[in-house]
Amino acid sequence: MAATGDDAAAMDSISRAPAAHLAALNTTASASGPAEGPEDAAESLTAASRRPGTNSDGGVETAEEAVEPAEPDINELCTDMFEKMAIFLQGELTATCEDYRLLENMNKLTSLKYMEMKDISINISRNLQDLNNKYASLQPYLDQINQIEEQVSSLEQAAYKLDAYSKKLEARFKKLEKR
């Protein structure tokens, strides 16, 4: 994630060279001649490293001793660290708060869905109760239909028996007529 605004400025200050390093450059530059700014100090430092030394070999360059930059102020570094830590922790807390808001919204939506499902199930239960009541009110008629069906079935059996008996009688009558 890219930092913007104050965060970018805070991160940029970490990567910059401390001001004490520029003072060391100015000290080196003043030894070789007067310098007017940081660019002049850098130019005079490179010019000083190109100058031949004073030893008897005229073409040999001499190395200068490396100067360590002065320690930056510890209070400034601590303050800077605490400010950046505060920014980081604020970001973490903001992200956590947003996560909780999202969860809260999801819980509300889920609750609404469950309430809708509850209403639907109550309607289904009510309709089922109505259907059961209607079925119970139709039950005597269904029993009558079953009795009629049994009676029709017994009448059908009686009709088959009567038909069979009439065929026997017809066969006997034809047999008697032939004699």
Characterize the structure shown.
It is a single chain. By secondary structure, this protein is an all-alpha fold. It has a domain at 14-54 and 65-72. The chain is 79% helix and 0% strand. It is built from 4 helices and no strands. The chain has helices at residues 6-15, 19-32, 38-50, 74-178. The chain is rod-shaped, with a radius of gyration of 54 Å. The N and C termini lie far apart (121 Å). 2% of the residues are buried.
Rg value: 54 Å
N-to-C CA distance: 121 Å
Tally of extended strands? 0
Describe the biggest sheet? Answer: none
Share of helical residues: over 70%
Order of helices and strands: HHHH
Global geometry: rod-shaped
- Looking at how many chains there are and whether they match, the oligomeric state comes to single chain
Which residues sit in consecutive blocks of at least 5 with pLDDT less than 50? 15-54
* Number of helical stretches of at least 4 residues: 4
**Mean pLDDT value:** 77
Approximate strand percentage:
under 5%
Structural class: mainly alpha
